[in-house]
Amino acid sequence: MALSAFVQGMLGASSLALGATVGVFLPPKRALSASIMAFGSGTLIAAIAFEITRKVYEETGFFPLMLGFALGGILFTTLSQYIDQHGGFLRKPAASRRYLFEHQPQPETIPSILQRLSNVQVLQQLPEGEKEAIANLVIPVHAKPKQVLCQEGEPGDYFYMIAQGEAEVIKDRKHITVLGPGEIFGEMSLLTKEPRSATVIACTPMELYQLNEENFGQVLTRSPHLALALSRTLARRLRHSVDSHVAAQNNLDRWQQQLMEPVELDRLLTENSQTLTRLVERSTPVAILVGTLLDNIPEATVIGMNAGTQQLAWSFLLAVFISNFPEALSSASGMKQAGTSKVQILALWFGIVILSGMIATFGYYLQDSASLLFIGTAQAVAGGAILAMLASTMMPEAYELGGSSVSYSTIAGFLLGFLIAMVSG
């Protein structure tokens, strides 16, 4: 039976090797990856509910179940954060983006920047955490009277937020308006990739904060509140535009759609060589290995514990197999973009498959020698850890890639997992 546990552990993890291979040589489209990931999340949730939760509750009661789930969630979250801080974040693209966004260089003047930007309209409704992240990314600019800040017809790769001073907006050599503290300009060209639609000239000494195109992409990825605020600003600007109403409305519809679409998720990993270098330097192979193994220890342990029973728990094994594929696919793609060699990537994931078999064997011997209460608590710990993994990695990653449409794939996966559990039970 120990051999059976080893084989089942490898079988559940074998999709890791398959997903990594596809991710390295033939990455699928984002929508397909999101659907597979959401489907796997649904099947895994069903398996946890009917193969772990129900079984532990019937055999040991609610208290061991509650204790185990809480302990599993705490352990997984704590260890995962520790591993990410020591270089393991590269194993997941979403973790890589979050790491970069949260670890921007911390200027000494963040409180003062927040104070100066407190009256900027598009920032007023943002949560404090998002305001602080934006304050880390802006560049202070001081302008003298008559200094040209934006030139009509020129490309625009940044926009300004006015802290102090006033600026005149000129279009076709005609005065349009005057901008003052709390207002922004330059965002239209940045969003639409079109030339500047007007010239902006400082009327008084000005204190501004500039956000360039690269950092603007980071902000939109992490701050949907800012995207909504900018969309409203576009609407207000166009209502006062000198263009015809019909043309303004057409532009508004097009620009708002472009703004509210998800920012290209892997932009940081493909366009910024410094970012790539920093990722590779901070991501050690050992940390990536341990982090990936941490994601699979609970699943392999449960598989091993069930291998010694008469019921094979096919729904859980299938759920693990399905959920592992998109996890390895997205991770391998992110590691490849960050400069890790194909040989290293494949060796890592094939090694995880073998180690998963060994962990399943350990789970088999554990259930063969421990008390029923201990086994139930251990399975509950594994269930809590798996739920924490789903909540912190797979489901957010699926939503980032596919948007709200992944809800249907999650529901379909849950129903399939439920059906298999009922048939096999």
Automatic annotation (TrEMBL):
Transmembrane segments: 29-50, 62-83, 345-366, 372-394, 406-424
Record-linked InterPro entries: cNMP-bd_CS, cNMP-bd_dom, cNMP-bd_dom_sf, Env_Response_Regulators, RmlC-like_jellyroll
Domain Cyclic nucleotide-binding, first and last residues per copy: 122-237
UniProt cross-references to Pfam families, sorted A to Z: cNMP_binding
One term of GO molecular function: DNA-binding transcription factor activity
GO cellular component: cytosol
Signal sequence range: none
Record keywords, A-Z: Membrane, Transmembrane, Transmembrane helix
Protein name (database record): Cyclic nucleotide-binding domain-containing protein
Originating organism: Crocosphaera subtropica (strain ATCC 51142 / BH68) (Cyanothece sp. (strain ATCC 51142))
